[in-house]
Amino acid sequence: TRRPLRWGAAPHAGCRFLCPEQTIPTGEAAGMTMMFAVAVQSLLLLHPSETHAKRRPNTALVSARMQFGDIEQSLSVTELQRLLSERNVDFRDCLEKRDLVERLRSSSASGRFSSVVAGPPSLTESEGRTVDTFRRVSPSVCFVQTSQSVVTSPFSLRAMEVPAGTGSGFVWDADGHVVTNYHVVASRGAVPRLVRLKLQGCSEALEAQVVGVEADKDIAVLRIRSGALPPPVPVGTSSDLQVGQTVLAIGNPFGLDYTLTTGVVSALGREVDGAGGRPIKGCIQTDAAINPGSSGGPLLDSRGRLIGINTAILSPGAKGGVGGNIGIGFAIPVDVVRRVVTQIIRHGRVVRQTPPRHLLDTSCTHF
To answer: Is 366 labeled as catalytic in the residue annotation?
Structure first.
């Protein structure tokens, strides 16, 4: 049987196209409704698998529409802006829709239309990797603060705790050990029993016990006893470092917590005077900005693995009280750090092997 059907009357509530009244077989109505639904999707330039809540312009259809010149009628302002953002085309100076259309056409003519950048449209691949590394590692970096007891009045029997120094540190293992520099925790040569440190997300500072120190290598190991700790920083190696590779430094320079700086390995095998008076050999030189307060923070490779501890900078103006970064910083290589920290955790100090007795006997005559 046949009966009259007016387009826009329901077999499909989403179709708003009005046509002259026609006589259509009842069995064909559903099929023609589907055809019009597909046509509407094509006009809206949507992928069939995507919902209206997350519209994404079809690149092939947009390219075809641009050739026929009807892109202004086919795309909304939001869709035009999304297309331009995905291709890293700046449209902040576009005031009207036709300005967006012209910008899109000019980007297509210059060959940028087909380039699609993975990840957020405002980041390059290397930038995205740096952002991801910082997000993963920064919760494991802590702000270390030491204090000393000062008697403010000769008539007072109670000493006041005043800040003595600040620096950075990082979580070493799942047992709560934290590694930092010796000169960060040592105040005027004296090593306190407890220091305070603050982790990202903690409203209050935590007390950390000083497990042991090694002044000659400028390394100190602390331990915090807390139930919820961030994961330890992944440990890499320093024996295979290359001059020119990218490095990242995270620390708290001048009390500005969780500061990220980037640079490269400028040189290898440098010798730096340690806090104990002996030189630290094999240090890493980097141009990543390291300032007072960054000491004890991690130096990372591009994958977020620990390759050193930031420990010193070359600052000619330090004697005049205007010390700061000039692009020459030094870090203790992680191979040295691993050996020293392991001994401190096991023995509370660095165990130095004594040469055999016969090598110390000066009465022996060697030919």
So the answer is: no
